[in-house]
Structure formats: C-alpha cells, structure tokens
Fold:
Amino acid sequence: MEKKKVTVPLVCHGHSRPVVDLFYSPVTPDGFFLISASKDASPMLRNGETGDWIGTFEGHKGAVWSCCLDANALRAATASADFSTKVWDALTGDALHSFEHKHIVRACAFSEDTHLLLTGGAEKILRIYDLNRPDAPPKEVDKSPGSVRSVAWLHSDQTILSSCTDMGGVRLWDVRTGKIVQTLDTKSPMTSAEVSQDGRYITTADGSTVKFWDANHYGLVKSYDMPCNVESASLEPKFGNKFVAGGEDLWVHVFDFHTGDEIACNKGHHGPVHCVRFSPGGESYASGSEDGTIRIWQTGPLAHDESEGLSPNGTLEKEKANAEEEVSRRIEGFHIAEEAKSKGKEEAEGL
Structure:
C-alpha cells in the first residue's frame, strides 16, 4: 500500500466551542499575531508564528462571530451575539470601547488607517465608528438588503465590501455617498470574503465555489469548483500562486491559483472547517474548526510519513518555551484566563 504524506500542523487548544473566525495581523516589530473568534464568547490572541497563547479578551456575554486586529496589532475588535462590538487594547487585554447594537453583530473590520471601525449584522445596517471620537454616533450606510455576514475595506478606505447570510452577491459601497456601486454575483450566499494583501483580488467562497475577482474593475478572474461546500478561502499573500479552502468535509485543501489543481489535502480536524487564513508572509496558514481547535499548517516541506510515529490524530504538539516567555514579557499585565476552564454557559449563537 502506498504511503501517504501528511502535513503536521501546530495544534492550538483553548477554545471550548467552535472557532468561527481567524485574523492575522500584518508583520510588526514584535512579529505577527493571530486572533480567533469562537462561540465560547472568549476571543484569544496568539503568537502568529508559534501559535503560543498570549491571552483571552474577557467581557462578551454571547458567541463571538468576528475578530480583527489593527495594522499595528495594538488594538483588537470583536463582534458578538450579545449585540455589541468591542475594541480592546491588544497589549493589556483591557476593553477600550463597547459599541452597542440592537441585534447580533456578525462582522467587524478596522480601516486601513486604523481610525475607523466597520460593523454589520442582523440589523441589516453597516455602521462606521470613528475611533478618535468613540462617543459620536456612527455613520450609517444605506440599509443592506439582508443580514450582514462579512465586511472588509478596500481602495484605501474609500470602498467597503459586504455580504449577506441569506442571499447571494457581494456588495461594494462607496463610503462617501453610502451607495452600492457594484454587486458581484454569486449563486449562493457568500460565506467568506478576503481582500488580498496587495489589493489586487477579492477572494470569495460561496456554496462549493471559490472565486477570485479583480478588486479594482470587479471582473471575475477565476472560479473553481471545490470538492465540497466551502466556508472559507484565503489567497497566499506573497506570490499569489496558491490558495487554501476549508469546509464541511473536515479537510483543509490547498490549490494552485492558476490551474485550480489540488496541491495538498490536510487532514486532522474533527469537525467542519469554518475559517482559513494565510499568515502575512505566506509561510503558514491557520484553520479553525467546529472541533474547537486552531491548526497552523506550514507551506514548506514540513511533512511526515503517516507510519512514522505521529500521534493518533496525525498532529504534532509543539512547545516553544523561549518564544512564549518573550511574548509573555511583551504583554505583561494582560488579563490571562485559564485556557481550559469551562464557561458553563449556553450563549445565543445567532444562527
């Protein structure tokens, strides 16, 4: 029987419920960071390279659906089923602002210049908060045609992107006029959207299809059928020559961007994959799953024979004490929470 090669991921434990969103910071003088959102109401910050846990942002009372870091990784934002979006100090873990909404908030995104925060959710309203004037009322963009699932900024914060949970299509809004300037047609509701690091492409996942759009002229560049319904896709940021996709079949697939051919199929999760994201340098990518774990996969030749003494689920637990110690020093004063403690709460999940 032919021996299969499997990629060995770093496995990040700590969440007690499904992981539904991941976000990498850009590279900073202190490295890069990974934030995760989970239905356990406790978003977590990690070292993006090692996966080492830095701390937990405590304060939400419901499932956290979306998370992001600003360009300097100094602030984090989270969107929750508790009808709020919170902005956090990423160095201390303190909550800086809490923006109350009237329904579940599904998405949030910092502007490129880090001064604005965009939110959207079940209210069908896109809101833009000025973080220099957090007490001021937010700017509200014309009502979305459906419940907002994802949001993103592009064109140097002149355009915002949104998708809906209950209908197909990606809508591009002009921030100055608050009007829709373009709709990218998708057959199924879009489950993820990502603007490439160089601003050239919009990567979307809908149904069993991953599409790449020209971010400036909005034409469809490539469309590939996937082996299953996918929930998330991410384009490699450095060379743009491959992309990852994850979904209901529990696997993380890697494809060639130019041909759509599958390059690798990584197994290890024990539940559907809800989110995948490439690290800012493209040397690794992370996946978050219904099983409550985050797995960080190397894009290089890190591979093991399945017959060579892997742990039963094909994973390798990796400890980097020195790196953890350095990061711990950097975030001294963070409100550290017990990784494995049980929340004992059943939160409204806004499905």
In short: The radius of gyration is 19 Å. The CA atoms of residues 81 and 351 lie 10 Å apart. The domain at 10-298 is CATH 2.130.10.10 (Methylamine Dehydrogenase; Chain H). The first helix runs from residue 321 to 330.
